[in-house]
């Protein structure tokens, strides 16, 4: 590993959005295939659902003041239980959506795993020899400050393109993919 471009290892483990050489396996892992990068959306991009949950909790607490004079304590308790279960479910499913939507770069291919809900997933795979173009898009104050952006990987022919939205350190990820492509295709 090169140390001059390495991100701090503590940051790598704590946020788990950009992991180099992770020690993991995945569903379609091939024998002898080494994982180079595991990519997730930057944690900053997930603040909206945390903020929404806090707003829902405040709304639930304010509803308690309004309905407490109209409803019995048992009914208020039931309303609170339903509200808390809804908020907890929203938090849990949002976290799972972030955690399982990953991009994986291996020594042989690039894999995009997208979960749109608990029961549906889409896996897009591109072999390294089929990759034609890699584009990074990053714009705005927050993307520059927190160093995240979107990577688009175009493949040969009519195959789908692969998109890694809002990943951490997009320029480092492109550099690693280009190293693999250079080894695969030659200089």
From TrEMBL:
This is DUF304 domain-containing protein. The keyword Transmembrane applies. It comes from the Bacteria. The chain crosses the membrane at residues 47-71, 77-100. It comes from Candidatus Roizmanbacteria bacterium GW2011_GWC2_35_12. Keywords: Membrane, Transmembrane, Transmembrane helix.
């Amino acid at each position: 590993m090169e140390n001059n471009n390495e991100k701090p290892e503590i940051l790598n483990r704590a946020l788990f959005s950009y992991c180099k050489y992770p020690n993991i396996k995945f569903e379609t892992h091939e024998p002898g295939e080494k994982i180079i990068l595991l990519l997730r959306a930057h944690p900053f991009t997930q603040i909206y659902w945390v903020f929404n949950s806090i707003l829902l909790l405040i709304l639930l607490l304010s509803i308690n003041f309004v309905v407490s004079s109209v409803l019995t304590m048992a009914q208020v308790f039931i309303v609170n239980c339903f509200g808390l279960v809804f908020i907890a479910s929203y938090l849990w499913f949002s976290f799972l959506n972030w955690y399982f939507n990953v991009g994986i770069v291996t020594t042989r291919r690039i894999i995009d795993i997208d979960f749109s809900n608990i029961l549906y997933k889409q896996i897009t795979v591109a072999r390294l020899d089929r990759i034609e173009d890699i584009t990074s898009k990053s714009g705005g104050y927050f993307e520059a400050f927190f160093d995240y952006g979107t990577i688009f990987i175009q493949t040969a022919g009519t195959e789908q393109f692969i998109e890694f939205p809002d990943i951490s350190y997009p320029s480092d990820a492109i550099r690693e993919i280009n190293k693999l492509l250079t080894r695969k295709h030659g200089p």
